[in-house]
Design a protein that fits this description.
With 528 residues, the chain is α/β, with parallel strands linked by helices. It contains 15 helices and 24 strands. Among the domains are: 149 residues, Rossmann fold, CATH 3.40.50.12780; 105 residues, ANL, C-terminal domain (GMP Synthetase, Chain A, domain 3, 2-Layer Sandwich), CATH 3.30.300. β13 and β14 form a beta hairpin. α1 runs antiparallel to α2, α4 packs across α5 and α6 crosses α7. The radius of gyration is 23 Å and the shape is globular.
Length: 528
């Protein structure tokens, strides 16, 4: 799929800004604090940023890392880089030097745009990054420059647009390669949900971090697609963001469970949400009691969905269901094909749904398809993992997500488990192996294992099991402080349990299943 046809075909994500400027140049595009950019002004700034980046000698296809918080600088840098034909590498500005060294080194990033703290950290490790030639503050894109007319590039379609580091089954994060085709396809797919999620008159709150695929595409990307208005918030604070929703008469809110949990507990929540037409929750499951509070206060559902970085990211939504059900991730969005297959045999377990409908009887309490791994196909799928496209869609376009779900008789999907041992903290991926590798660098720790534990606010939190060397006395605070020196805060354990030994499988691996059982039952892990 080389083009997205919606009256003004586009091949490059940055073309969406040009399209919106042609259609409604004076309309509000981005609002941040006291600054309002029209679509024409945004388009001009993107041209300027693209011209400056080209002037630095960066070649089309080179990787540009952007490590910035939400604000006007991020979208200008992002869209300017794409218009210049570069590949954008979104980076969490909270990363430590160790984490930065991995994503910048593995990707071969040629340039970085970041704030002073991140730039100082990169300077410290720069000897480890031979491909890195440019370190830029966001103000570098504000310099006066005459682009000489609109900047254009031939890059688009199947060309790589984004390289986003995300979950692997083990070890360090790996780069998912998202083409312009994949990103634009997911925007077009979401735009076909009826009733429309967005229209040009809507006002969208963008507090989800733009360096995360959820904030970047279902958030900013959908605003670009529709040419509506975005209100940017640098970080999530329940009171101030609720104030933004009320002040700007926000109509659409893409969010994550911790945001809705916090908002639902504020006394002026219902009044502030008075203009909100569509509220969406992703990244993890919204607690049922929070959903009930929200519905009681506003009379509306918060619609939930499911997706992955590798799918740009949206795959399913309860917007597609007849009525949202507690715990459901809904049904596939338009343009996404989805199957559930038996993890061992590969048989299609969703095919049983038709049989269930025919066989249904009032005494049957189990009108669901057996759980199976979610396998998907669509124009929104990634091109495999960096750098060689490994583990991407198969020859027929199908890709195995590694997530397990079941479908009820209506076709609504419910997540059961993850084949991967990924931990989701406020929707952010934490890879156990990465945390474990840091834990065992402590001279007093001889073995460690990490699992996810339920958390009422963040959905999951990191729990570490630690075996210390003989005679060593450590506290949980010591272990957490050790991790904080090498890991972003959301990856660090919040709970540490010391054990004489950890359970192992027959092959010598730590048995995470037995650890989880010990955690659920409150048992000593050395005895399970």
């Amino acid at each position: 799929m080389d083009e997205i046809s919606v009256s003004d075909p586009v091949r490059n994500i940055a073309d969406l800004v040009r399209r919106a400027a042609r259609r409604n140049g004076t309309g509000r595009a981005l609002i941040f604090r006291d600054t309002v950019l029209s679509w024409a002004e945004l388009d001009s700034r993107v041209d300027q940023a693209a011209a400056i980046l080209r002037g630095l000698g960066l070649a089309e296809g080179e990787r540009l890392a952007i490590a910035l918080p939400n604000g006007l600088d991020f979208p200008v840098a992002y869209l300017g880089a794409l218009r210049a034909g570069l590949v954008v590498l979104p980076v969490n500005p909270g990363y430590t030097g160790r984490e930065l060294a991995h994503v910048l080194g593995d990707s071969g990033a040629a340039a970085v745009i970041a704030g002073p703290g991140v730039l100082a950290e990169i300077e410290r490790i720069r000897s480890e990054l031979p491909a890195l030639v440019q370190l830029l503050a966001p103000t570098a894109l504000d310099e006066a420059v005459t682009p000489g007319g609109p900047v254009t590039t031939e890059c688009g379609g199947e060309d790589l647009a984004l390289l986003i580091y995300t979950s692997g089954t083990s070890g360090r994060p790996k780069g998912a390669m998202l083409s312009h085709r994949a990103v634009l396809a997911n925007l077009e797919q979401c735009s076909r949900i009826e009733p429309w999620v967005l229209n040009p008159d809507d006002v969208v709150l963008l507090v989800l971090p733009l360096f995360h695929v959820y904030g970047l595409n279902p958030g900013l990307g959908q605003v670009l697609w529709e040419g509506c208005t975005a209100v940017l918030a640098e970080r999530f604070d329940p009171v101030s963001t609720l104030g933004l929703i009320a002040r700007h008469k926000v109509t659409n809110v893409p969010g994550a469970p911790p945001m809705y949990v916090a908002w639902s507990l504020l006394p002026d929540f219902a009044e502030s949400f008075g203009h909100v037409r569509v509220a969406i929750c992703g990244a993890d499951q919204l607690p049922t009691d929070t959903q009930e509070r929200l519905r009681a206060a506003t009379g509306r559902y918060v619609f939930e969905g499911y997706g992955l970085t590798e799918t740009a990211p949206v795959l399913t939504s309860t917007l597609m269901s007849d009525e949202p059900k507690p715990g459901s991730i809904g049904r596939p969005i338009p343009g996404v094909e989805l199957r559930l297959i038996d993890v061992v045999s590969g048989a299609d377990v969703m095919a049983r749904l038709d049989d269930l409908a025919e066989e249904h009887d009032e005494d049957d309490e189990d009108d669901t398809a057996d759980p199976g791994e979610i396998v998907v196909r669509g124009a929104n799928l990634f091109s495999g993992y960096w750098p060689d496209g490994r583990d991407g869609p198969d020859a027929d376009g199908w890709w195995r997500t590694g997530d397990v779900a079941y479908a009820d008789e209506d076709g609504d999907l419910f997540l059961v488990d993850r084949i991967r041992e990924l931990i989701l903290v406020s929707g952010f991926n934490v890879y156990p192996r990465e945390v474990e590798d840091v834990l065992v660098t402590h001279p007093g720790i001889v073995e460690a294992a990490v699992i996810g534990a339920p958390h009422p606010y963040t959905g999951e939190t990191v729990k570490a099991y630690v075996v210390t060397a003989p005679g060593v006395q450590l506290t949980a605070e010591d272990v957490i402080a050790h991790c904080e020196r090498a890991l972003a805060r959301f990856k660090c354990p919040t709970t540490v349990e010391f054990a004489a030994a950890l359970p192992h499988s027959a092959t010598g691996k730590v048995s995470k299943g037995r650890l989880r059982m010990a955690a659920r039952r409150g048992l000593d892990p050395s005895g399970v």
